[in-house]
Amino acid sequence: MRTMSPAAHRTADRFTARMFRGLWVPAMLSSLGWALSDMADAVVVGQRLGAVGLAAIGLILPVYMINCMFAHGLGLGGSVRYSRLLSQGKTQEAADSFHGVLALALLFSVTTAVLGSVFMDPLLALLGTRSTDGALYAATRDYLQILVAATPLFYLSNVFNYYLRNDGSQRRAGAGSVIGNLCDIALNITLVLALDMGTRGAALSTALGQIITIAIYLPGFFGQKHTLRFALPCGHWLTPALSALKAGMATSVQYLYQMIFFLVCNNLLIRLGGETAVAVFDVIQNTSYLILYLFEGTGRAMQPILSTYQGEHNRQGMRNTVRLGFTAGLTVGGALIVLVELWPAGMCLLFGIAGSASEALACTALRLYGAGALFAGINILLCNYYQACENEKPSFLLETLRGAVLLIPLTFVCYAFGLQRFWLLFLLTEAGSLAVFLLLGLTWLLPSRVLFVEVEGNSRVESRAILEQASQCGIGFWDSRRGVRSEKTKNALLEALPELQWAGVNTRGCVAVISVRERPEEAQVDRPGTVSAVTAVRDGIIESVTVTNGTALCRPGQAVRAGETLISGYTDCGRTIRAGRAEGEVYALTERILTVRAAENVLHLEPEGAGKQKIFLRIGKNRIKIYESSGIF
Fold first, then answer.
1. Regarding beta strands 622-626 and 452-456, do their DSSP bridges make them parallel or antiparallel, or are they unpaired?
2. Taking the complete model, does pTM exceed 0.70, yes or no?
3. Residue 94 backbone dihedrals phi, psi, to 5 degrees
4. Nearest CA to 177 among 37, 17, 6, 305?
5. Which of 222, 311, 620, 621 is most buried, taking the most CB atoms under 10 A from its CB?
6. Taking a C-beta distance cutoff of 8 angstroms, is the pair 486, 504 a contact?
7. Distance in angstroms (rounded) separating the CA atoms of residues 7 and 2
8. How far apart are CA 606 and CA 354, in angstroms?
9. Which range has the top average pLDDT, 220-234, 424-438, 453-467?
10. What end-to-end distance do the CA atoms of the chain give, in Å?
11. What are phi and psi of 157, to 5 degrees?
12. Which DSSP helix (H) or strand (E) runs through 552?
């Protein structure tokens, strides 16, 4: 039996590589455009208004995160389901799911815009600024008014982008995003620097950029070659749309955690270093857009391919896609991280704080952030992988770890370290989240995986030959214990290795034991003219008979005695009788009488007094006891 090696599989699967490159390049351009667009406000406003402008942009970040959570959740969750339905040939059902998601996006965005406009002053107070703050309050209010009013544009732009990528319009999605963001940057320069419109000009440029992006996306919803169409949702559309949002929230929930983090962090930094600390934090946040958006773009390029292969049950294609995605993402993202580590002063110059009192602090913070950005990129790629495979639980767990469970407590811990060491927060959070996620994954996976394979009962047949054949039957390192099939392995071993007479597989914990019995040496010599028979070695009741040569003299259910012939070497061929060696397998139910010594009296322990309650944490099939003497708190 011939099998292809993993390297040969990767060479043969050139289609996956071409498809990934076709998606990755537009996704990178789109991500770069988004990053520059998000940075443009901080860059231009920082150059014009200095620390006040940077602080104003930092204060409205929680509102931006809430919009991202719902927009990306609807777009990602809906597009994954859309791609899966298309791969299954359910075109109409896929189109109906798009109509429902689009209607829900409009409902959410319009409601958010109305509520934000009506309750503007309470919202500003929640974000951390009041009318007594003077210039900071005015700058924040000017920006927030336009941002809230443009919420529906932001939702539509993101939902359209996700769906177009899954409908074969990757280039249009990438071009629309890049052109819209470039227009945003140009309008920022014009309205803020040239016309001196301050933060109001920055917010207006963002809204106009979204309008241009949507205008480029719209032709992708018309024409015969496109599945996507605009239509009113029909039937019970709300439940599937909410289900898509729930699926997408496994990844987009990170934006909710970031909103909480921004609210907490802004208040703590004001206490530590005032306006300077908040300005440096805004520089770090905008630098993260440039780096992490590239990882997120790689994840978006992987998603349609992984979703399609998931529907087709193409495991090898999924592995190749993951390999290509991680290689591309870590290469591009790592290059930017190295640039930030070697030249942090360039980022300070970009945001207009070069030569100021905050430059030294910003350089220290950027270098510490760069160390954590690599772990953040790995976490983002992992989340996108699980999301694309519609396995939301691991994605939700990792996002929760890095966005809330570790991030919020570590914020207070790093606050106690002081302003210079506060920026260790990003490295500790991302590396710690990845470590905890891998540890929990191993704890859950280890009991269900084969870690060691042993061979017993062989003396002449090499163990390596047995292990090679067993690995082709799914018995090797990290293979699933549930996938071990003893009968399949036995047949493969006996077919490939004629020196074996019998084989079987048992699992003990994480160890798979292959037990074999070799044929007697004399049985391997085939002497011409030798006539033999298969006889019973003990009394029993026949359960099954398999004859490969000779004539069966027994049948299932028949009782036989030791020495009785079960398979004869003589075969009646009509006119002649053929004589030879009888071959076959006969299984029977036998009885053995054993003598053992048993205790005459048996003592049992009976509990006395009150019972004691113990608490344990159950992870998979494992239990971790949690009580005073366990050492686990």
1. unpaired
2. no
3. -65, -45
4. 37
5. 311
6. yes
7. 15
8. 77
9. 424-438
10. 53
11. -60, -45
12. strand 551-552
